[in-house]
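Below is a filled-in request sheet from our internal design queue. Each sheet records the structural input a requester submitted and the sequence that came back. We keep these sheets so that new team members can see what a complete request looks like end to end.

REQUESTER: design group, bay 2
PRIORITY: normal
MODE: inverse folding
CHAIN LENGTH: 332
BACKBONE (tokenized):
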């Protein structure tokens, strides 16, 4: 029997999960559950490069896990874990910092953006974050790393670090491929369709746990385009706001752009926007209900993250032991 290919990804619990995380990432993970051997984690160690409120971080990490499961990630078929529970991440992260160049880290656009945004706290972790991300990935020897466009540069760097290490010590790391989801899965902000949906623009962002009336309000106020046409037609260059709503509607209903144009083309944006809102509310309702139920069952959640950490540690430890041996650390 062929071994399944390995897939790994993570999301930082620095904010509540939103529709962009679901349609752009988690839903695709769910769809590929059976095809791959899957590792998905809450990247809590990454969040502290920016100051976090401890109680909020703890709460959001558990909520994220409950929401992963509620979205359909079956813990029996996916290894779901909390990054800080697997100490090998920190250990390999340190090693890989020593194989990552200052110049490489200086060129990371996310570092430049975040250090411009948090001038009062440009800490060492913010700078070396990509080495930890490389460790997150390389520990599991994955074939594919599904990430958004914004993480592509970090994935490229991970490949460079792995290749550098392998060229010195032999084949230790598998070189992973980034796995950028197909067009249509990229959800843009409802108030700013030129940038991706983000918690930093809350009025343009629909959270998975949000109340239906709030979701409806956000869709009713979504920016459509200032053209005079007032017609639902898929043209991302000329009509980015409408195209974004169409892609959301298509993702949650399964309808093609053609069908949507036929359904709403003649009736303008006034009918279309609340219809998208309704469809999203119905799509999120079972997720919200299930996540609420799971979150109340602390013993179950604990059993999931404990089993996940145990399985992840086993795999991570194999890689770490090999690395330690290659670089000359005395075996314990
Ligand atoms: N850096 C990613 C983000 O900010 C999260 C992340 C951390 C990640 N480690 C990872 C994603 C490993 C994929 C693989 O979105």
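RETURNED SEQUENCE:
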């Amino acid at each position: 029997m062929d071994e399944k290919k390995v897939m790994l990804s993570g999301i930082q619990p620095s904010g509540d999960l939103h529709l962009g995380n679901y349609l752009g990432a988690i839903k695709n993970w769910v769809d590929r559950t059976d095809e791959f051997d899957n590792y998905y984690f809450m990247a809590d160690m990454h969040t502290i490069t920016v100051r976090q409120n401890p109680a909020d971080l703890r709460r959001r990490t558990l909520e994220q896990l409950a929401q992963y499961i509620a979205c359909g990630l079956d813990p029996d078929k996916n290894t779901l874990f909390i990054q800080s529970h697997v100490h090998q991440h920190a250990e390999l992260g340190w090693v890989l910092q020593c194989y990552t160049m200052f110049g490489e880290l200086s060129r990371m656009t996310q570092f430049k953006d975040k250090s411009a945004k948090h001038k009062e706290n440009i800490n060492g972790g913010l700078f070396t974050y990509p080495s930890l991300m490389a460790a997150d990935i390389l520990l599991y020897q994955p074939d594919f790393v599904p990430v958004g466009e914004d993480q592509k540069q970090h994935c490229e760097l991970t490949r460079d670090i792995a290749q550098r290490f392998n060229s010195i010590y032999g084949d230790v790391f598998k070189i992973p491929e980034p796995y950028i989801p197909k067009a249509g899965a990229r959800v843009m902000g409802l108030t700013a369709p030129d940038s991706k949906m983000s918690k930093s623009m809350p009025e343009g962002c629909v959270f998975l746990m949000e109340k239906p009336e709030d979701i409806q309000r956000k869709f009713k106020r979504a920016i459509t385009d200032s053209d005079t046409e007032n017609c639902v037609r898929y043209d991302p260059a000329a009509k980015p706001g409408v195209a974004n709503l169409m892609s959301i509607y298509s993702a949650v209903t399964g309808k093609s752009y053609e069908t949507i144009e036929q359904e709403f083309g003649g009736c303008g944006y006034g009918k279309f926007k609340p219809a998208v809102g309704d469809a999203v509310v119905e799509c999120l309702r079972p997720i919200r209900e299930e996540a609420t139920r799971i979150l109340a069952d602390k013993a179950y959640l604990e059993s999931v993250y404990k089993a996940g950490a145990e399985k992840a540690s086993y795999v991570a430890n194999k890689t770490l032991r090999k690395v330690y041996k290659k670089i000359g650390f005395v075996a314990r």
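SHEET NOTES:
- The first strand starts at residue 5 and ends at 11.
- The mean pLDDT is 94.
FILED BY: M.R.
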